[in-house]
């Protein structure tokens, strides 16, 4: 066995789950020595990995899919959703392949450095942090909507956003994904229950909550719509947001006990997510038509709305704390990588760790308070940051590993063409989607007189 093969086997070897209780230790290409003196950063099984993957996606994005279908129509909506699912699944797969070949890679900024040098690291690293901070802001906003719905707007919405910030910071500061995975299990079960409750309820009830409550009513769903460009492209980027857990898969794969099981976790994740999105999007939009609410949990009657948001709260909280945790962990690793403080429970370790999670949480709180229109925030984040996190870098990763391949057969040429398509499509969606989202936000602010930021108004009635 060559030295290179031996190093790869060592890098891929699973870390014992009992590290942290005994004196055994293992060396990890990212975290260094994992010993009993600190947290075990390599303790997530493949099922836990699949749940963490699903939880980074199912939670916020799915709540806007019926609204996206309202802009696109059922048939174009399903086609776009399946296309986005296919591209992001390929991107997710490439992450697993790249991670095996380059075990030192922890985040997308490492990919940026391999592809474009120091400038690539700075650009993609900054985009990664901004992406997850904005996503955490979306999560806090969704929690405030849920609290308003359950409590019948018992207090100012700004207070609920602050509550979401405090809880997300505290739970997001749990040190490892292995310790958080049980929360992801609970959160996933709760959000699935909440969404299925609404999906069943809209099919049973006479009409959705936002529809006229008198006279004969019939759903005005459309097979194909004639939406304006900015509305259609905003709907597409909303669907991108629903699949944009991709950049977190680097961090999740890094904490797997055995990274060789990555693909089985990915297949389970994407199969469940895609089937669920299609069923929920089609059924809710079919019965609600243009009267679907955003988030979709408010589409049924008042009682179902309270029940569904009650179930959804743990799921929305689990998503938000994951966003805070992953972003804080990324900054934390970058600050302490190569130092003993990274994997030892020292004072420096805890001060830096809590400072990272608090900073992420407070910036997310500011975003949630400043752009308090859920669908607009989801669309903006999906366009501006979601596409460049899920499309272009993964095409670059394949080209990086395969461009110099000696055998340039038709398969190689087809993959080069595919990578070119992914780069062009991602760039178009980023530019056009950002334009559409900004126009939508401006229109909403004009409608509200610009007074919506840090508002006390009930945000669960839209």
UniProtKB/TrEMBL annotation:
A GO molecular-function descriptor: L-amino acid transmembrane transporter activity
Keyword list, A-Z: Membrane, Transmembrane, Transmembrane helix
Subcellular localization, as worded in the UniProt entry: Membrane
Bias kind Basic and acidic residues: ranges: 1-10
Regions that span the bilayer: 44-68, 74-95, 122-146, 152-171, 183-204, 229-253, 265-287, 307-326, 347-371, 377-400, 412-442
Pfam families: Aa_trans
InterPro entries xrefs: AA_transpt_TM
Span of domain Amino acid transporter transmembrane: 44-438
Gene Ontology annotations for the cellular component aspect, listed alphabetically: membrane
PANTHER family documented for this protein: AMINO ACID TRANSPORTER, AMINO ACID TRANSPORTER (EUROFUNG)
Protein name: Amino acid transporter transmembrane domain-containing protein
Species assigned in the record: Penicillium malachiteum
